[in-house]
Structures are given as structure tokens and as C-alpha cells.
Amino acid sequence: MMTGLRSALFLAWFLLVTAILSLIFLPVLALPRRATVWLARVWARWTFFGLRTIAGIGFEIRGTVPQGPVLVASKHMSMWDTLALYLALYEPAIVLKRELLRIPFYGWFLAKAAAIPIDRGAGARALRRMSEAAREVLAQGRPILIFPEGTRQKPGAEPDYKPGVAGLYGVLGVACVPVALNSGVYWTGFLKRPGTIVLQFLEPIPPGLKRDAFMAQLQGRIESATNALLP
């Protein structure tokens, strides 16, 4: 019962903060991208403040946070992952579904601050567009964040890695940093269970591997480290 009450109070906090920041800072969209990046980080920090003080959820970062032009491939269990990685990394560009950019306010800010949209129905053309946008990001010295399974997975669910991450890794020619986490144990839809979420940056995979070898290493490292974080 207490978990449900805390979860409801956090949801109210989250919606209030999101509404206020969206309306007050709407003019920021007319400013350079970095202004929107600053706003997004403020929103993430206030969200985490509410998680900690209301829902009793803290977090811990393990491993070496990657710097510069690199591909970061993370396990994905909840909305928390995107917020935490956006704070931990330096102005990352996030590979995401194009449909998300159509969401009022959220999609607008996302498009300005951090998006590399992908149209899943466009096949090879989508990969070319994604690769071109990714090269521009890397040229700016920024990392690219991708969730290889394409959508959120419940803790312990069967892995479902998509080939897009291997295609991006192959054409960009940069190292890939796998990321393990256990956010889904504590952020489970509406319910927010007290505890400490762990975000773990793993040993980088060097560039130049063949597709199958790369996918085997990526999935093996992420799944092994993620399973070790689960209760």
C-alpha cells in the first residue's frame, strides 16, 4: 500500500514538473540546441529528485563513463534509462523511433536536443539516414546512444537484439560501450519500488569486428552483467 501511495505521489510530481518546464521553457526551442540540452538535464535532475525523496529510489553508476565520439549500446527496461544516460553522457544523440518526435512538447524537445530518428519501415534507406546523422554527431565529439533491443524489456525477459546496432557499428568504425542496468526492478510501470538502481558501463568493444562476432560480444556482455544485477 505504501509503495502504491509513493508511486502516485511521484507521478503527480513528475507530471507537475514536466508541465511547468514544458510551458515555461517553450521559447527555448527557438534558441540554439544547447539551451534545449540544458533544459532536458534540468528536467531529468528534478525527476530524479522526486524519485529519491518521494519514491525512495536512488542510483549508482559503475564503470568508466565513455567520453568523446563513441557508440553506447544499453539494456532498456524503463524510462529511467534514457534520463540517466542523458545525464551521465556528454550531450548524447539518441537513436529512437520517429513516432516519438510527434508527441507534443516531449517530442519537440527531444527532436531539438538529442534525436537520431529511425523509420523502421524504410529498411536500408533508414540505416543510411541514421548513419549520416550519426556521423555528424561523432564529428561534434559527442556519443551516440542506442538501445539494441529497440524497446523496453522486463527483467529476466528473453533477449531480443535487433541488427540495427551492428549496422551502425559497422559503418561508423568506432568503439561500442555496452551498458547493463537493473532499472526494471524498481521502475515497473506505475509502481516505483524503493531501492538503488545500478547503471554499469562495461568494457568497450573495439571497432572492426565482423557482424556476428560483434553481436555475440555485445549481447553476451550486456546480458551477463545485467543478470548479475538482478535480485
CATH topology: Glycerol-3-phosphate (1)-acyltransferase
How would a crystallographer describe the biggest sheet?
7 strands, mixed
- Classified in CATH, the superfamily is Glycerol-3-phosphate (1)-acyltransferase
Number of strands: 9
Give the domain tally: 1
What structural class do you assign from the helix and strand content? alpha/beta
Indicate the proportion of strand residues.
15-25%
User: What integer value in Å does the Rg equal?
Assistant: 17 Å
- Give the overall silhouette: globular
| CATH architectural grouping | 3-Layer(aba) Sandwich
Task: Please state how the strands of the largest beta sheet are arranged side by side.
Answer: 1-9-6-2-5-3-4
Unreliable segments (pLDDT under 50, ≥5 consecutive)?
none
Q: Which CATH class? A: Alpha Beta
Mean pLDDT: 91
| SSE run | HHEEHEHEHEHEEEEH
Count, helices = 7
End-to-end C-alpha gap:
22 Å
Work out the helicity level: 40-55%
